[in-house]
């Protein structure tokens, strides 16, 4: 730590949902001064943002662009670090949340926080690990210091978009994994799905310039395993309940919080068609979300695709 650098940071968290409130608790445990802003609260954002060391966004994807431009309308210290914990893609531009924050704040350090982090487990104080990624390693280390504890292990990483995409793309695979379990397809099928899902994630990541090795880490494979195997995951629940015959509208109406994989799947389908990138699993999830096929038909489509080498799509 540099001389004069204060140990405890002032942090403003944007979004009082499941993840924002859990991250607030983790930062407070370490002695940091944390305020949580919600669009439904009475506190004025302009009064809270003045001179904070860190602004962490945990709003769902649909709110990121609006919140980033709202923040920009207030004076922000040039030293403020921005952290994004959202796992989604912008439907209009296909930008990741960190790309949106960087565009609004080109002279600030942007850090992505992502990993196998089911908020309910972390809120119960169960151990977990995550990744903080930035082009500015010092900024990533500041965020690492803020959140690290005996029950939350934080690693740094230099590939923010790769870390962010690991967390975003696995949500579509988690819907597929929920379908797999909802149909009782067994452990072999689930292992095949998750492994081919990772291959698909890496292929999509390449379009964004993400590093392949990032997807083998906590924010990639780690989050894929957590989300595809846990009934606590909202995305997994979407798939599971679709396989059990519920409609998407029914499922979303009763889901606690946001299942980003639904929107991400639509964005990816657009990207797949626009750039001719094969995304077989994403395509079947899309058809299911749109009620174009049954879960059984989606399974057959995947199993009977043209024969190929494991190294190809
Ligand atoms: N819950 C988790 O386990 C978890 C873990 C890691 C990452 N995430 C990611 O964090 C993000 C938030 O997830 P969550 O579980 O907290 O969802 P949530 O639905 O519980 O909360 C979303 C928050 O975003 C806010 N929001 C939405 N639109 C907004 C707008 N236009 N303006 C201002 N605020 C707006 C909502 O008011 C709410 O506070 C998602 O992208 C999710 O994928 C969640
Ligand atoms: O509940 P989900 O499906 O949004 O998953 C939560 C986290 O992303 C798991 O790391």
Automatic annotation (TrEMBL):
Residues annotated to bind NAD(+): 15-20, 234
Residues binding sn-glycerol 3-phosphate: 87, 115, 170, 223, 233-235
Binding site for NADPH: 19, 39-40, 87, 119, 234, 260
UniProt pathway: Membrane lipid metabolism; glycerophospholipid metabolism
Catalytic function, reaction form: sn-glycerol 3-phosphate + NAD(+) = dihydroxyacetone phosphate + NADH + H(+); sn-glycerol 3-phosphate + NADP(+) = dihydroxyacetone phosphate + NADPH + H(+)
Domain Glycerol-3-phosphate dehydrogenase NAD-dependent N-terminal intervals: 11-40, 43-139
Gene Ontology cellular component terms for the protein in this record: cytosol
Residues reported to bind substrate: 87, 234-235
Pfam families: NAD_Gly3P_dh_C, NAD_Gly3P_dh_N
Domain annotation Glycerol-3-phosphate dehydrogenase NAD-dependent C-terminal: ranges: 159-300
Family matches, as InterPro entries: 6-PGluconate_DH-like_C_sf (IPR008927), 6PGD_dom2 (IPR013328), G3P_DH_NAD-dep (IPR006168), G3P_DH_NAD-dep_C (IPR006109), G3P_DH_NAD-dep_N (IPR011128), NAD(P)-bd_dom_sf (IPR036291)
EC number: 1.1.1.94
Alphabetic keyword roster: Cytoplasm, Lipid biosynthesis, Lipid metabolism, NAD, NADP, Nucleotide-binding, Oxidoreductase, Phospholipid biosynthesis, Phospholipid metabolism
Active-site residues, record numbering mapped to chain: 170
Cell location: Cytoplasm
Molecular functions per Gene Ontology: glycerol-3-phosphate dehydrogenase [NAD(P)+] activity; NAD binding
GO biological process, any: glycerophospholipid metabolic process
Job of this protein: Catalyzes the reduction of the glycolytic intermediate dihydroxyacetone phosphate (DHAP) to sn-glycerol 3-phosphate (G3P), the key precursor for phospholipid synthesis.
Homology family: Belongs to the NAD-dependent glycerol-3-phosphate dehydrogenase family.
PANTHER family documented for this protein: GLYCEROL-3-PHOSPHATE DEHYDROGENASE, GLYCEROL-3-PHOSPHATE DEHYDROGENASE [NAD(+)] 2, CHLOROPLASTIC
The protein, known as: Glycerol-3-phosphate dehydrogenase [NAD(P)+]
Organism for this UniProt entry: Cylindrospermopsis raciborskii CS-505
Gene transcribed to yield this protein: gpsA
């Amino acid at each position: 730590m540099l001389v004069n650098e204060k140990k405890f940071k002032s942090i403003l968290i944007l979004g009082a949902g499941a993840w924002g409130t859990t991250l607030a608790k983790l930062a407070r445990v370490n002695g940091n001064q944390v305020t949580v802003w919600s669009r439904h609260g009475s506190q004025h954002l302009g009064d809270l943002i003045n001179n904070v060391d860190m602004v962490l966004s945990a709003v769902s994807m649909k709110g990121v662009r609006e919140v980033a431009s709202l923040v920009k309308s207030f004076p922000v210290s040039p030293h403020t670090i921005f952290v994004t914990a959202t796992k989604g893609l912008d439907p209009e531009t296909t930008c990741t949340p960190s790309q949106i924050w960087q565009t609004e704040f080109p002279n600030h350090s942007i850090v992505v926080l992502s990993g196998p982090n089911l908020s309910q487990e972390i809120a119960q104080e169960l151990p977990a690990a995550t990744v903080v990624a930035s082009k500015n390693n010092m900024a990533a280390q500041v965020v690492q210091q803020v959140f690290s504890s005996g029950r939350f292990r934080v690693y740094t990483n230099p590939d923010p978009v790769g870390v962010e995409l690991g967390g975003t793309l696995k949500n579509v695979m988690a819907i597929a994994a929920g379908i797999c379990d909802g149909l009782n397809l067994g452990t072999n099928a689930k292992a095949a799905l998750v492994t081919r899902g990772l291959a698909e994630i890496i292929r999509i990541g390449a379009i964004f310039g993400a590093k392949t090795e990032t997807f083998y880490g906590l924010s990639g494979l780690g989050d894929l395993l957590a989300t595809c195997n846990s009934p606590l995951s909202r995305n997994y629940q979407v798939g599971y309940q679709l396989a059990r015959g519920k409609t998407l509208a029914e499922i979303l109406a009763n889901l606690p919080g946001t299942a980003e994989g639904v929107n991400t799947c639509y964005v990816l389908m657009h990207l797949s068609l626009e750039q001719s990138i094969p995304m077989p699993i994403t395509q079947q999830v899309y058809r299911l979300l749109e009620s174009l096929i049954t879960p059984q038909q989606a399974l057959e489509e995947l199993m009977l695709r043209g024969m190929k080498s494991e190294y190809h799509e």
